Amino acid sequence: MATREQQSRGVADQGGSARPGGRPIELKIRDIGQLFQSLDPLPFRERDLDAAVEEYVVAWAREQGGSAPVRILVHLPAEETRREEAGHIGDAIRNYFAYRAEVAGWELNELFRVGRASLAIGLTVLALCVALGAEVSSRVGEGYVGRFFDEGLIILGWVANWRPIQIFLYDWWPLARRRRLYQRLARAVVELKAG
């Protein structure tokens, strides 16, 4: 279901459900300019999609699932289909999502770079804590005070590894999923329908 903002801008689902089985994501627009950011000075094929259009298409494609290319059916008035820009709508949409996939890839690489640096720091802190804990407990003795420092320092060392563990076990999944989704949208079959 389209949001009120999308409907008010003329971006709405025309009864098509983006479910497996080949039903396209349908967009209804009054003019080609509705698809793209109006303030974007780049040439037509390189413009950013309008935020509402992107959100709508991404949401339906995510729900559709799978790995097959997405079909996007753009309904627009007959006079709009005769404009030169109409022939470039498919390329513009695919270029936009290819760029978004590339950005998601950069974000994923940056996350792994931070993860590797965090892991190096965390393991160094853990090694220092284990060594320092052993040294303190040998000087203080094996009593409660020695155990307090030894175990406290070991806990501190493991806490220092929390962030890299979180990155390598959990944080990268959403970015990788988003990149795959954008890659699917970059292969989208875009069709225009006058009417």
Distance between the termini: 21 Å
Task: Report the mean per-residue pLDDT as an integer.
Answer: 84
Spell out the helices and strands N to C.
HEHEHHHHE
Poorly predicted ranges (pLDDT <50, ≥5 residues)?
Answer: 1-21
Radius of gyration: 26 Å
- Backbone shape: rod-shaped
Helix share, percent? 55-70%
Main sheet: strands, sense, barrel: 3 strands, parallel
Walk across the major sheet and give the strand order. 1-2-3
What percent of residues are in strands? 5-15%
Total E-strand runs: 3
Structural class: mainly alpha
Could you characterize what this model shows?
The structure is a single chain. With 195 residues, the chain is mostly helical. Helix content is 59%, strand content 8%. It is built from six helices and three strands, in the order αβαβααααβ. It has helices spanning 4-8, 51-64, 78-81, 89-140, 144-159, 162-186; strands spanning 25-28, 71-76, 189-194. It has a three-stranded parallel sheet with strand order 1-2-3. The longest helix is centred in the middle third of the chain and has 52 residues, at 89-140. 23% of the residues are buried.
